[in-house]
């Protein structure tokens, strides 16, 4: 099977800095891939290397089965939407949209037809003769999208395209881009530092750290079965709670290093006495009454109310966050939570933080 | 208005008048007769203003001198603009230790005065036979002198153009050269134009190279031609000043018309 974009053992160095390490990815046609990670993890560098704006140190990049590793950006037939939109300030919206087509010396009728179609899709019909400086942020964003779409490229590259928009518009454009992707079915690689953006938009999420791919897979796979502590902590909001614990003598439960040394059951079996890091998602800690199994009683330090949910921070070390889907009383002092055994994650306590057990 | 502002304004006026006095004296002297020039005490306004523009123009064949000046300034500006824009672009985009060395060398070139450079230049031009084409020789020498200034000014303009624009152009299907010519140059247009005007005005007043390299009177620019007023026994001061006024006035007009752009062009990059 030929993939739309295939990356094989890609490495890149900035002098002595190893910024991309053994990157391997296979993107089938029509897939929406999100590259996500903290700033400086190499996600933008990876995208720009795919685009040809950065040279690859070692490894190969294929687009539609043909190797493009050393080729110039224009030989790769990719379109890119930049964080700053990078609209040409000295050209009108129409000229911006048609720039690539004009470079290819397409006949005028083809260009006019394309402008008509694209301006309808992006809702820019009224703005074609304006200059970028006369547009609002959202409109500029649309022009940048339109400029990419009009070329009908073999893949779209997005470099944090929504990070310059305000929160409401960002949510709106998120849905727009997603709809557009469904309609055009174009292969897309989307860089973002926002894991919610990645989770909601992508078919396939690639989590990166320090130039390495930590894990890639479907969004819910990453959520349910993170392969290490970094991915577990990065995906999901609020972030997963990590608690040091020791596997009990029976091998099917862990003893927490909290006052009272509570014990939690998990599904599976680990060697007794193993030091582990327990991972509990805030939304899996249920403040339900009447269940005594896998119950923790925690002193409350602070409550954050968002309206739809309450986040309860406990007065323990380390702090535990509990996401309560309903409301809690003002002066709550103690909260009792239960956790289903299948939602208990165990990670090794060393620096790698490898997942030992992902039930779910 | 506070006292402080009044004092500052007065000081500014004093300095401006000191600066502009020679210009005023040039125009005034051009309008005076030969007796008025040496009158004591000197008069600050001519009694019988007269301007011998046509007479001076014809007597000294100023058309030819100004044509040579224009040729030298135009040639210099053309070479500097074409070569300097590419150079400034490269220096604005590549950042490494070697480029810092290059930039330093470029700036060093600007420090060296013409009068110091002319002797080695003359010797080397003589050897390659360039002195047979004296105006070309002056254009080359002056272009070399002006390039650093142009590069430094235009580089600042290129630095202000976001890199993403040129990357977008590359992805949209441009070659490197295409992205430079179609995106970078139009966006740096103001800086390039202002710097070119500055180079043109400076080259229009070039003296040292022309004086040294051009011996044939028919090929000399207006700056050198000014010397012909100096006789061994007497000097036609009124003629000199008329000549100077004819020469300087167009430059002044251009500068006044463009001064807003020139000032903003010079400070762009510096204030960022």
UniProtKB/TrEMBL annotation, chain A:
<dbReference type="InterPro" id="IPR008995">
    <property type="entry name" value="Mo/tungstate-bd_C_term_dom"/>
</dbReference>
<keyword id="KW-1003">Cell membrane</keyword>
<keyword id="KW-1278">Translocase</keyword>
<dbReference type="InterPro" id="IPR047641">
    <property type="entry name" value="ABC_transpr_MalK/UgpC-like"/>
</dbReference>
<protein>
    <submittedName>
        <fullName>Carbohydrate ABC transporter ATP-binding protein (CUT1 family)</fullName>
    </submittedName>
</protein>
<dbReference type="GO" id="GO:0005524">
    <property type="term" value="F:ATP binding"/>
</dbReference>
<dbReference type="GO" id="GO:0008643">
    <property type="term" value="P:carbohydrate transport"/>
</dbReference>
<keyword id="KW-0472">Membrane</keyword>
<dbReference type="Pfam" id="PF00005">
    <property type="entry name" value="ABC_tran"/>
</dbReference>
<dbReference type="InterPro" id="IPR003439">
    <property type="entry name" value="ABC_transporter-like_ATP-bd"/>
</dbReference>
<dbReference type="InterPro" id="IPR015855">
    <property type="entry name" value="ABC_transpr_MalK-like"/>
</dbReference>
<dbReference type="GO" id="GO:0055052">
    <property type="term" value="C:ATP-binding cassette (ABC) transporter complex, substrate-binding subunit-containing"/>
</dbReference>
<dbReference type="GO" id="GO:0016887">
    <property type="term" value="F:ATP hydrolysis activity"/>
</dbReference>
<dbReference type="InterPro" id="IPR003593">
    <property type="entry name" value="AAA+_ATPase"/>
</dbReference>
<dbReference type="InterPro" id="IPR027417">
    <property type="entry name" value="P-loop_NTPase"/>
</dbReference>
<dbReference type="InterPro" id="IPR017871">
    <property type="entry name" value="ABC_transporter-like_CS"/>
</dbReference>
<feature type="domain" description="ABC transporter">
    <location>
        <begin position="5"/>
        <end position="235"/>
    </location>
</feature>
<dbReference type="GO" id="GO:0140359">
    <property type="term" value="F:ABC-type transporter activity"/>
</dbReference>
<keyword id="KW-0547">Nucleotide-binding</keyword>
<dbReference type="InterPro" id="IPR040582">
    <property type="entry name" value="OB_MalK-like"/>
</dbReference>
<dbReference type="InterPro" id="IPR012340">
    <property type="entry name" value="NA-bd_OB-fold"/>
</dbReference>
<dbReference type="Pfam" id="PF17912">
    <property type="entry name" value="OB_MalK"/>
</dbReference>
From TrEMBL, chain B:
<feature type="transmembrane region" description="Helical">
    <location>
        <begin position="7"/>
        <end position="28"/>
    </location>
</feature>
<feature type="transmembrane region" description="Helical">
    <location>
        <begin position="65"/>
        <end position="91"/>
    </location>
</feature>
<keyword id="KW-1133">Transmembrane helix</keyword>
<dbReference type="GO" id="GO:0055085">
    <property type="term" value="P:transmembrane transport"/>
</dbReference>
<comment type="similarity">
    <text>Belongs to the binding-protein-dependent transport system permease family. MalFG subfamily.</text>
</comment>
<keyword id="KW-0813">Transport</keyword>
<feature type="transmembrane region" description="Helical">
    <location>
        <begin position="137"/>
        <end position="158"/>
    </location>
</feature>
<keyword id="KW-1003">Cell membrane</keyword>
<feature type="transmembrane region" description="Helical">
    <location>
        <begin position="179"/>
        <end position="201"/>
    </location>
</feature>
<keyword id="KW-0812">Transmembrane</keyword>
<feature type="transmembrane region" description="Helical">
    <location>
        <begin position="103"/>
        <end position="125"/>
    </location>
</feature>
<keyword id="KW-0472">Membrane</keyword>
<dbReference type="InterPro" id="IPR000515">
    <property type="entry name" value="MetI-like"/>
</dbReference>
<dbReference type="InterPro" id="IPR035906">
    <property type="entry name" value="MetI-like_sf"/>
</dbReference>
<dbReference type="Pfam" id="PF00528">
    <property type="entry name" value="BPD_transp_1"/>
</dbReference>
<feature type="domain" description="ABC transmembrane type-1">
    <location>
        <begin position="66"/>
        <end position="258"/>
    </location>
</feature>
<dbReference type="InterPro" id="IPR050901">
    <property type="entry name" value="BP-dep_ABC_trans_perm"/>
</dbReference>
<protein>
    <submittedName>
        <fullName>Carbohydrate ABC transporter membrane protein 2 (CUT1 family)</fullName>
    </submittedName>
</protein>
<feature type="transmembrane region" description="Helical">
    <location>
        <begin position="240"/>
        <end position="258"/>
    </location>
</feature>
<dbReference type="GO" id="GO:0005886">
    <property type="term" value="C:plasma membrane"/>
</dbReference>
């Amino acid at each position: 099977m030929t993939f739309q974009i295939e990356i094989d053992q890609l490495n890149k160095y900035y002098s002595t800095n190893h910024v991309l390490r053994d990157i391997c990815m296979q993107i089938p046609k029509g897939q929406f891939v999100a590259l996500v990670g903290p700033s400086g993890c190499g996600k933008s560098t990876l995208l720009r290397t795919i685009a040809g704006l950065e040279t690859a140190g070692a490894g190969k990049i294929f687009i539609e089965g043909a190797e493009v590793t050393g080729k110039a950006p224009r030989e790769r037939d990719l379109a890119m939407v930049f964080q700053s939109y990078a609209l040409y300030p000295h050209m009108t919206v129409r000229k911006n949209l048609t720039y690539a087509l004009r470079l290819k010396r397409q006949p005028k009728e083809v260009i006019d037809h394309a402008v008509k179609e694209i301006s309808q899709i992006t809702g820019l019909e009224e703005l074609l003769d304006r200059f970028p400086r006369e547009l609002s942020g959202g409109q500029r964003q649309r022009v940048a999208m339109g400029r990419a779409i009009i070329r009908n490229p073999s893949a779209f590259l997005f470099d944090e395209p929504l990070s310059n928009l305000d929160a409401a518009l960002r949510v709106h454009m998120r849905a727009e881009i997603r709809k557009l992707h469904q309609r055009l079915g174009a292969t897309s690689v989307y860089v973002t530092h926002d894991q919610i953006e990645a989770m909601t938009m992508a078919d396939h999420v690639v989590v990166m750290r320090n130039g390495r791919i930590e894990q890639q897979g479907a969004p819910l796979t990453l959520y349910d079965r993170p392969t290490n502590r970094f991915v577990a902590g990065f995906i999901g909001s609020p972030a997963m709670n990590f608690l040091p614990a020791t596997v009990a003598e029976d091998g099917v439960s862990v003893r927490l290093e909290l006052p009272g040394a509570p014990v939690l059951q998990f599904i599976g079996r680990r060697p007794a006495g193993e030091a582990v890091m327990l991972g509990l998602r805030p939304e899996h800690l249920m403040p339900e009454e009447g269940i005594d199994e896998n119950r923790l009683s925690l002193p409350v330090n602070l409550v954050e109310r968002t309206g739809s949910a309450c986040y309860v921070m406990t007065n323990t070390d380390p702090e535990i966050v509990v996401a309560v889907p309903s409301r809690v009383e003002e002066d709550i002092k103690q909260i009792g939570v239960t956790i289903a055994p299948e939602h208990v994650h165990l990670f090794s306590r060393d620096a790698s933080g490898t997942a030992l057990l992902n039930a779910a | 208005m506070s006292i402080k502002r009044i004092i500052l304004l007065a000081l500014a006026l004093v300095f401006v008048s000191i600066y502009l006095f020679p210009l005023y004296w040039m125009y005034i002297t051009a309008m005076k007769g030969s007796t008025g020039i040496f009158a004591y005490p000197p008069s600050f306004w001519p009694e019988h203003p007269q301007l011998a523009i046509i007479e001076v123009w014809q007597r000294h064949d100023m058309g030819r001198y100004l044509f040579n000046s224009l040729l030298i300034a135009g040639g210099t500006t053309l070479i500097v603009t074409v070569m300097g824009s590419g150079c400034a672009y490269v220096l604005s985009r590549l950042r490494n230790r070697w480029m810092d060395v290059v930039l330093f060398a470029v700036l060093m070139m600007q420090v060296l005065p013409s009068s110091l450079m002319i002797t080695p230049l003359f010797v080397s031009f003589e050897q390659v036979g360039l002195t047979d084409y004296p105006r070309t020789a002056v254009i080359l020498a002056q272009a070399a002198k002006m390039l650093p200034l142009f590069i430094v000014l235009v580089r600042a303009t290129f630095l202000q153009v976001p890199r993403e624009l040129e990357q977008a152009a590359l992805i949209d299907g441009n070659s490197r050269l295409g992205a430079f010519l179609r995106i970078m140059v139009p966006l740096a247009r103001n800086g390039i134009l202002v710097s070119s005007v500055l180079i043109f005005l400076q080259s229009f007043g070039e003296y040292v190279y022309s004086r040294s390299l051009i011996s044939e009177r028919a090929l000399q620019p207006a700056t050198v031609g000014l010397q012909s007023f100096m006789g061994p026994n007497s000097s036609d001061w009124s003629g000199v000043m008329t000549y100077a006024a004819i020469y300087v006035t167009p430059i002044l007009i251009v500068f006044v018309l463009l001064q807003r752009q020139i000032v903003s062009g010079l400070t762009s990059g510096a204030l960022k």
